[in-house]
Amino acid sequence: MPDFRKALSDGRVYFFDGGYGTFLQSRGLPAGMSPEVFGLERPEVIKSVHQDYVDAGADVLTTNTFGGSRPKLGPDVDVVGLNREMARIARSVAGDNRFVAGSVGPTGHFVRPLGEMTFKEMVAIFKEQIQGLVEGGVDLIIGETHFDLAEARAVVIAVREVCDLPVAISMTFESPSACLTGTSPLTFIDTMQNMGVELMGTNCSAGPEQIFEVLKNMQPRLSSPLLVEANAGLPELDENRNTVFRLKPEPFAEQSRRFLEVGAKFIGGCCGTGPDHIRALRNAVGEAAWQRPVPSDDCQMVLTSRSRSVAIGFEQRGAIIGERINPTGKKVLIAELQKGQFTEAMKFASEQLAAGAPILDVNVGAPMVDEVEILPALTREIFAQHPAPLSIDSTNPDAVEAALWEYPGSALVNSISGEPGRMERLGPLCKKFGAPFILLPIIGSKLPFTCEEKVQVVSDLLRQADELGIPRRLIMVDALALTVSSKPTAARHCLDFIRHCREEWNLPTVLGLSNISFGLPARELLNSTFLTLCQGQGLCAFIANPNSVRLREALYSAEVLLARDPQAEQYIDKYADWTPAGNGGSAAGTGEIKAKDKSGAENLFDAVVKGDRGAIVPLIERDLAGGRDPFELVNGELIPAIMEVGEKYERKEYFLPQLLQSAETLQKGFVRLKPLLEAAGGAEEKDTIVMATVEGDIHDIGKNIVCLMLRNHGYNVVDLGKDVPAQTIVDSAVEHGAKIIGLSALMTTTMVRMEDTIKMIRERGLDIKVMIGGAVITGGFCDSIGADGWSTDAVAAVKVAKELLQ
Question: Is this prediction's pTM over 0.70?
Answer without folding.
Answer: yes
